Amino acid sequence: MSKQAFPAGQPATLSAHDALRIVRVLAARSENVAVIAHARMRKHQRRISHADILRVLQKGVCVEGPNIAAKSGLWRLNVEGRSAGELLTCVVEIVWRKKLLVVTAF
């Protein structure tokens, strides 16, 4: 069994509590939140604003993960919360302590 290489600085283990704390710190600054192409398409289809995503990332709860994403090797988690009266889930990956990548939102 080979040892998986993690991106620079990323820990081999991460609790939901610690992951959510990092998400909230990063989401406090909009420039730390990048929405990838798939998520931009889903935002448009589902009429989700960037402000909705930020609100959920800043105030929501972790409902799944964190787990290591197969393709990127980054920590991924689902954050769920309410914005504009609607329940919203954001799937995010943590570029370790630098940025959040929004993978999708529903």
SSE map:
Blueprint: H1 16-27, E1 33-35, H2 37-46, H3 50-59, E2 61-68, E3 75-83, E4 86-95, E5 99-105
Parallel strand pairs: 1-5
Antiparallel strand pairs: 2-3, 3-4, 4-5
Helix pairs in contact: 1-3
Give structural notes.
The structure is a single chain. With about 110 residues, the protein is of the alpha+beta class. It has a single domain, classed as YaeB-like fold (2-Layer Sandwich). The protein has three helices and five strands; from the N terminus they run αβααββββ. A five-stranded mixed sheet has the order 1-5-4-3-2. Strand 4 and strand 5 (about 100-105) form a beta hairpin. The relative contact order is 0.24.
Distance between the termini: 36 Å
Q: Would you identify the regions where 5 or more consecutive residues have pLDDT less than 50?
A: none
Helical percent range? 25-40%
Work out the count of structural domains: 1
Estimate the strand proportion.
25-35%
- Broad structural category: alpha+beta
What is the number of helices?
3
Morphology: globular
Can you count the beta strands?
5
Strand order of the largest sheet: 1-5-4-3-2
The major sheet is characterized as: 5 strands, mixed
Remind me, CATH topology? YaeB-like fold
Question: What do the pLDDT scores average to?
Answer: 94
CATH architecture: 2-Layer Sandwich
Task: Please write the string of helix (H) and strand (E) elements.
Answer: HEHHEEEE
CATH secondary-structure class: Alpha Beta
Query: Measured on Cα atoms, how large is the radius of gyration?
Result: 13 Å
